[in-house]
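Box 3.1. Reading complex inputs
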Amino acid sequence: MTTLATAPNPGFDPPGVEDFQLPPIAGIEGLTKPVLLLVLSAIIIYAFFAWTVRRPALVPGKGQFLGESFHGIVRNSIARDNIGHEYLKYVPFLTTLFAFILVNNLFGIVPLIQFPTFSHPGVAYALAAMVWLIYNVIGIRRHGFVGYLRVSTWPPDVPWWVRFILTPIEFISNILLRPVTLSLRLFGNMFAGHLLLLVFILGGEYMLLHSESILLGVLSPFAFALGIVFTFFEAFVQVVQAYIFTILTASYIGAVLAEDH
Amino acid sequence: MITGNLNVIGYGLSAIGPGIGVGIVFAAFINGVARQPEARGQLQGIAFIGFALSEALAILGLVMAFALQ
């Protein structure tokens, strides 16, 4: 949005999809800010967990306590409540997933970074595709291919004539639509949140510096204040979305592991 | 004169239903916790899954508003 002042027709140029298309860094094709942020998030998460388990002790220190409570939240409130008695096997995956999404979302409000990686749909699609593969493979390994299809699309105790409509719906919603909604929910929330902040901050900047009326300049602090308020709201949304992605993954894994529908 | 895309109005319409749905989900969650505070942990997970499912429609609307030109 640096072109605001030099735009051919004066007036506020509202932020849009084009603000998410960042130029490649150092002229290397494909190396953009989201790619760097993905790598950075992996390094941060590795460093955090390596630091917390550096010197494990029976009475945990501060670092170990932090890491263990993070792991404990995922184990107790996400995995155990949604997967069932075999939950312990999936806790490492869910913890990694939660940490990865959380760090990448929080990049959206960290000063100087301020770009949630998942506001690019491709990143969210890849993550949802991975989750889709994992829960399908778990289900097929548990029940066999036909058995898995029966578990996910053939609910018991249903009159035979209802199955003509129920089974296609169950197939579409359980197998085809789940990865779509999973990825679009994460992408949509991050995209909308970042756009909201852009509207308030860029709008405030326009009102303060580029508008001719004094009134708008006087009112611009309200735009910045709302921008700050919505930054806190975004922090909340980002944590909730990471939690929801992980809890839905856990409940999908729990559903394919269950004996009955 | 106002310029813009009619899709955005469609997004506004698509957000009505999920808005009501999310309200109902959390109203039920608060009711449940008020009646039985010790069930909070279990209810929280269910509430967030319900919230996510009903919110999905609004998110689909938002994506469609930008995807269809």
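In summary: Helices of chain A lie at 33-52, 62-83, 91-106, 121-143, 145-153, 163-210, 214-257.
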